[in-house]
Fold each of these.
Amino acid sequence: MSSINTKMKAEKRAMDKNDQELIQRTIDEGIETAWDRLEKQLPQCGYGSLGVCCNRCLMGPCRIDPFEDEGPTKGVCGADADLIVARNYMADLACGAASHSDHGREVVEVLLATAEGKSDGYKIKDTEKLNSVAKEYGIEINGRNKEDVAKDVATKMLEEFGTLKNSIQFMKRAPEKTQKMWVDAGIMPRGIDREIVDAMHRVHMGVGADYKNIILHCSKTSLSDGWGGSMMATECGDILFGTPEPLESTMNLAVLSKDKVNITLHGHNPVLSEMVLEAVKDPDLKKLAIEKGAKGINLVGVCCTGNELLMRHGIPLAGPMLDQELIIATGAVEADIVDYQCVFPSIVSTAKCFHTKIITTSEKMKIPGGIYKEFKSESAFTTAKEIVKIAIENYPNRNHERVQIPEKPMKVVVGFSEESIRKMLGGSYKPLIDAIVSGKIKGAVGVVGCTNPKVKQDYGNITLEKELIKRNILVLATGCGAIGGGKAGLMLPEAAELAGDGLKSVCKALGIPPLLHMGSCVENARILIMAANIAKELGVGIEDLPLAGASPELYSEKGFSIAQYFASSGIFTVSGVPLKIFGSQNVTDFMTDEMENYVGATLAVEPDPVKAADLIEAVIEKKRKKLGI
């Protein structure tokens, strides 16, 4: 393939020039990436895309063609398209809710181990947040040390995964009006694992048969994630590692170093990355890096682990999920350390083209060909040092002639936790509410989620974010959806120049970007908390606020849960990638229209980010009119 054709192909795959540079390299050198594998899959199965392929039991697989009158209209068991689509959607959503909530459970378990003095290297860093959460649980804090309080908090949270307590404390953070809506709809969660297990029971052949009942339980399951497992992950992460405050850093592939040991941290759980961050400070390891010919150690983040490191510590972030193979393809990474979620099994093959070592750390996620170093809280710091040592000792194996690192890192301003935003506003959301009432800011949108090779990388995220801020709509971004905006310069105060006059004036007055980075995808909980607190100040429900959610480049089952719990919290939510529901007109109509009768919001699918902005703006204007503003 000619260099011109290679360049054109790279430009079709990603917006970012640095990404394009490395994509071109992978094409020229025959290094397979997700984009190549997608091309080999085309055309993808239409039945699967529409959600009408059922593989739930050994009487199948069954499939229904919604476009052919003469084809089968029911599976062997009698399930029609409505039921098959609803069951498939719930199975995907339950997997996503389990993934985020199990992540949350692990962080809670580390908090408990730290409180009991059984962890290695962890400390309770935010006592103020610990005490605040303890009060919510009715735990006494006066005259007690922080470890005893933390033990009680962690224990109370762990009880909420099953049925011992039969309720989730953080659901009470929502306004009473929203809580009543959940109770009336029958979707108030009883426990985190309880609802996920219930969901998987319902999709078994011969159990759930009413598509509406199934979709409503999807709401119940997703709420147990958003207001349960994910919120626990966020709050306990802040207690252990510190609540983010605004800070400056850099982002994109250029954050890798040509003359330092590069260690990338990829995945989702900060329990691992925080200890590696401590390990690279070790004087003996710093000395070893110099002895091996490096000028130091350069730690960078990838995907959502990267978002957490960026938020709390300003550690540079190399890129989103789809960049993971490109990062290795720079030839400059000594070790890629992964925990779980959004990690391609293919990275071991990519690493074989260079000197990079892939180190897996979770019993849940082992990759053949990688080095497995099990990471447990009781030996965390020791294991982290061992992992860093492996990376340092690999530095002499780097082929410097094959290193290709782009030259221009992008500056970003990040660290906008719910607490830091409220503090910036003087301790109350009144200034923000006043700006919304006056029309300077029309509303806010959470742009969250993924990157997907079906969409030109970052195009959906960046285009939607620019459209929204141009229309005086504040953007709150998390996950890989946030990284695209960061790489495009939208996380700088100067980006206010791209905003409408009203939003621009607010951003300039506060010295903030029009896109606020609020962390990893599990930290969507920060957006929910912010929405709840604003609603309570106004005396309304979340469903009444001029808010929306969007995932322009959705790929993950976790994204199904996120979209559902946003909508189930009363927040209109748009996916830029078609959900696998279009094989059933009834399910589609229920989720995009009738669901509003139960939760005050719906889901929508719109691949065109400009048209998605139109949909969002229309809903925001409708909510403003209903509020009389």
Amino acid sequence: MTGLLPALLVLLFAFGCGGFVSGSGAWAAITGQAILLLAAVAGGAWALDPWRLGRRWRLLPWATVAAAGVSWALSPVPRAGMVAILLLPAFVLLPAAVARALGGDRLERGAAVLTAAAAAVALVALADPGLLSGGRALRPFGHHQLAAAWLVTFFPLALPSLSRRGSERLFGLLAALAIGGGVVATRSLLGLVALALQGLAGYRGARRAWRLVLGVALLAAAFAVPRVERVIRGDDPSAWARLDYAAAAGRGIAAHPLAGQGPGATPWTLARFLAPGPGRRPPGELVGDVHSLPLALAYELGLPGALLAFGSLGAFAAVRRRERPRSRAPRLLDAALLGLGGLAFVLLGNAALTVLALPVAAAVLGGVALAAGRPAGEEIAGWRPGGWIAAGWMLVAAALLLPLARAHLAYDRAREAPEPPVAIRELGRAVQADPGFPLYRARRAWLLGPEGAEAARTAAEQAVDVAPLWLAAGVLGRDAELPWAAAALTRACELDPLGAMAPFHLALLAPGAPRAPALAARAIAAEPRLLAARVWEQEPELLVAALAALERDERLDRGWRAELVAKVVERPAGRRREAEIGLVWDGSNGAPGSRYLFRRQPWYAELGVTPVWPDLVASFSIPSAARLATTAPAFFAPAGCAP
């Protein structure tokens, strides 16, 4: 039964604790953290050399953990990485725990069950209803790139069975077809290329089934060709976005090259380094990661921490390759290393390590490599002094995670509360248990209204660079007539240069100021429907000045300007209907902030709303300037937000 534990672990994190969607719930997070801590205690016997690197390199993983700890201590947002720091030793020890579970004669059977588990996940992906309408396979992770990365990790495990006979060979054939088909169904470019490379690298060892493996590789390559062609032509929005994220990461690394921004800091700090890109970046975009693991590690841990991390991984692969001549299962060792290589290739364009299914999959496959690389007959001792060190650390980690878990549970209860007073009470408990987490304080402030303005400002300061939190704080501060409202709205405008609501409210905060017409023009350009805002009836001069500023601004497309300025806002009598425009938080077409930035369940809200006349809004068909590729980026430069 011990040999089944690795397969159960990956299934639990794939379907419950580690998915992009499922893993954001409180009970999923608590369960996953508890399992990781317990599993790491089982690997504590190897704590002094967890990856079996030998005397020269055995401290590399712990040096990486130490570098991450220094980066966390110096981070501007230490709360963002607190859970990561507490769980990082568990991930270092997890491969050793998996290797112990697969010791002795349990290795082959455990690897077969793990392959079957991966095939089951692939079948779930192939059964995704979105495929029938031409979409991508998202299940069970909630995102096609994550599904592709996970499946690529386990595809090579099916290859050793193909060289055998009878039922084992049939099992390998079915598993390879299922997992390979799942990757193809995701239509992830990096996943398809990784699958093709794995097939080309592994077909020689498949013997009689080499045609099948080579066919899977060629099929993946064929599906990747059209996307590669679009990338080369410059017609791929995803590729352009990744270039923008990479440039932002480069600016962040240059700002803090030694210690980085801190573990987990990317979603809370990246906005200050993102340059506006009309036609490439949508307004209100919230970026959860830089979509490249090497850049993410350098951005968060600094260059020394990133070098230590890559040095540890390189040493692991090199030592396993040296063990191959004496390995008890050389083909299984090759398959594990090939799977880790495929995951590493996909992570060149993805860095969603907060989705725990991926790091757990990597750790489990690393454990398979450890177990396969050990010579036959050599077993690990039942307990060693390092086990006590690991157990002590896990007790400390559990004690520090307990209040965070209570706060997460309170947040989930607040989401489901039938009345606002109940939600406010539960969010108050969350803030008390975890005062450093910005989302709890911000959500409570939004429910309180102007009364919660100071709390909203504190939450925005804790999150540092999350534009919607600054927008909400500025609007609440304005309603409460607090002196810092203009500074908060300015900060929101600088962090989201393509957004409309921050410059709109900033212009109305002081309509007679010299910069007010330019700010109002900026808001109307980003969201033309604001021409129908009811507030213009009280500020007609500001509207006229804003339209004049738009008409003479040569940085905007001439045809677009003519169409917008020609749109006369009439005010016919008898209108009774009302509507609102605002920044949507956690809506289906709005900013998915809770999951992307805070790994929490979504909770719909509208921030910075302003009343509009719906019959006028319905007449608009003009695209926002922020979505026009012909718009000059200089018009939406962050410097233009200054009051």
Amino acid sequence: MNRILLYIFLFYSNFFVFSQEITGKVIEIIDNEEIPVVGANVYWIDNSGGTISNIDGEFKLENSKNNSLFIISYVGYQNDTLEVGNSVSKIILKKDSELDEVSIEYNRRSSSVSLLSSSNVINISSEELLKAACCNLAESFETTPSIDVNFSDAISGRKQINMLGLSSPNILMSIENIPSIRGSLQSYGLTYIPGTWIESIQIAKGSGSVVNGYESISGQINAELRKPLVDDKLFLNLYANRMERIELNTHFTGNLSPKIDYGLYFHTNRKDTSADNNNDGFRDSPSGNQLNILNRFQYTNPQKGIVGFFDFNYVNDKRVYGENEYIDQYIFNENQNFWGGKSESEILKTNFKLGYVNPDIPYRSLGIQFAFTNIDMGSTFGNSVHDTRQISTYSNLVYNSIIGNTQNKIKTGISFSYDNYDEFIDNLGLNLFDISRLEKSIGAYFEYNYDDSDKLNLTAGIRYDNHNKIGSFISPRFHLKYSVLPKSIIKLSFGKATRIANIFSENQKLFYSSRQILFTEDSSPSDFSALNAEEALNYGISIINSFKFFDRDSQLVLDYYITDFQNKVVVDWETPSLINFYNLSGKSFSNSFQIQYSYNVSNSIDILFAYKNTIAKTDYISQGRLKNPLTPENRVFFNFAYDGPKNKKGANWKYDLTYNHIGKQRLPSTLSNPVEYRISNFSERLNLINTQITRVFSKKFQIYLGLENLTNYRQKNTVLAPDDPYGDYFDATYVYGPIFGRMTYVGLRYYIK
């Protein structure tokens, strides 16, 4: 009881509410006022896991071993052993006196909507990621209705995500609140974050906090990685699927000293062959392999109130794609007379984070983030080439404090980013583009939060940035949460975001076609500098109502968001054999409405139903206002999750089923193509079912078996003009559904706690 493990979260830990199974709030009473206790240690009695309270005194603790007793400890206060109960209570620490018994809620949900944050945040825990084959971050949203997932093209096998009707470049993608998947990584970056490394994901709809940057147009997705201090000592995951893809994930953790913990995370995947199930002459997905290594070091000094992380990540990824004969000849190093290409990526990333909380004044903290990235990516596509090298640094310094009392919190700081691009494009051997450039910015921000711990939580922030390409600009952000009734909440948000489009990495699928690149209709094809920065306003409202239905927990959530572009780089696919980039002239907007209902049927069964309607349109120079291509207007989602009772050894069955109905999507026009190379202006409606069953044999070992696309749907005409890939009408970008039909997979997991 006398051993204190004061583990202080970095400053970024209060930007999001993490989804854990045990939740509570630690406070002390001073002059009849409730003061949050920051850095209180919360851990299971068997030391199988632990966490600490954040700047608001709140904590979340995963109960993977179904423990019933946990311990609260803090310097200068009496330790106590508490029992998990069935209601939510504040935990009041008292000096030199016994603690009263406290009961808190045991929350089994692996995905939840934050009721505490002023912003609209969806929390996804590691348990939710186990419901599907989450081989990487791009595949981690199959059971989440707020994110749409689909293939980007019919050749690369790469998946892309959409939120609020807009593609992933409009989402600020961060790893532990450091902007990470941006620039050159927009092409394959999501596939370089293995799913087993992820501890939790936070999806923030609408403009995010000013602390995290100016780029979030439709929202922010933040992935928290596993922490060496609380991760399993050993974890092993093996995975194989019908497409002959094999993966291995291993985690090792330990400690170098009482204050330094480390974790070694290893991922590799390999696919030597690939099927052509739709018989179009092209492999349904690439062959290749990936090596991905992450080494994490965590430093904790409770006496001085310091915690730090240092990460080193190395990725080497190789892919070969194209016609069946091209891949066969590539393997045997013979002459290549068929359409195909290869992609080679080598990435080196280092992150450093250091946080300090004043032990005497815990509501004051200082933190710094620093990241360095070196990206070297080279790709060929038939007669086209896209080579890019990016060297980037990012730093962020933030100070947290209060004004008067803990109801009034502030964050202020300064951030700097530097991106040096060496980028070269050979478009079909017709046009050469050297768009090497330097982008750098410095910004300062201030954010105020008012929280009365009852009805009102308000966050208002503003940041000022100076960018060498954009100039000076201001980004205001506002979020408000108001509790109309004890279990009925309304959230409002407003924000402005700005970003520079990295058009070739964000639209790399254009190279899987014979489209010639133009930058404006009236100027020369090399006028890349004419493209302006993108600017957009985002408005949102969310209503959350939690209630009992037949004495079981249920929740109804209604969201409506409007994204209105002041300027946008229009990606015009409407003319076959051409792709045109130009500045928006007119309107571009996306209106997204979603209704979501979750219900706890029993202690073992949860269901989730959602309906989403998206109206996204853009004014094109030659075509007028059209619906954005490949953006479904309607989507119906249903998820059934079963987590059966466990025996004394911890063994049980788990089952998950996800149904997606995806409405019609507009396709770019092919009317000017020859008749044999035309397709409909709209896609078919899709009904997709994924399912997985898991047998947990013990707390150490489990096997899972899954099936994606149960109905065996295969899109027709995924590749136009496959018989003439070097001709004018070849195009593999009209993809709206599964390419290779039903896919089965199997895997095992092994843990040493």
